[in-house]
Amino acid sequence: MIIKPKSGNNFKYISLDAYIEKHIQSNSGTDSKALKQSLLYFRQIKTEGIKCQCGNELWIIGSAIAGKGCFRCITMQTDRSNDYELE
Questions:
Q1: What per-residue string of b and e applies to 17-31 under the rule 16 or more CB within 10 Å gives b?
Q2: How far apart are CA 38 and CA 76, in angstroms?
Q3: CA–CA gap between residue 76 and residue 35 (Å, rounded)
Q4: How far apart are CA 6 and CA 41, in angstroms?
C-alpha cells in the first residue's frame, strides 16, 4: 500500500511488506529476510533519533540498501518525489 506524502516531505510512503515485495520483484536475488532485518534496524534507529552524519533524518529504505544516510547523502539529489520511504 502506498500512502500520499506527509506534509513537508515528498516521499511516497509504503508499508514494510509492500516495499519488500516491490524490491524483490525488481531484484530477484535479494534475501528477503536480510532486507527486512535491515529495514527494521534502520527504522528503529531513526525512531531513536539517530541521524545522518550531515544532521538530516535517515532515509530508512536507502540506508537499508546503501548504508546509513539521508536521502541527499545517499543519492546526491533533493527531489524525493519518485522515491519510497517506510510509513
A1: ebbbeebeeeeeeee
A2: 22
A3: 23
A4: 22
Q: List the grid coordinates of 40.
A: 527494521
pLDDT (tens, 9 = 90+) of the chain, 87 residues, equals 555 545 456 899 999 999 999 999 999 999 999 999 999 999 999 999 999 999 999 999 999 999 999 999 999 999 898 899 998
Taking CA 6 as the corner, what is the angle to CA 49 and CA 13, rounded to the nearest 5 degrees?
Answer: 85
pTM: 0.88
Least Cα distance to 64 among 36, 30, 23 occurs for 36
d(CA 53, CA 32): 27
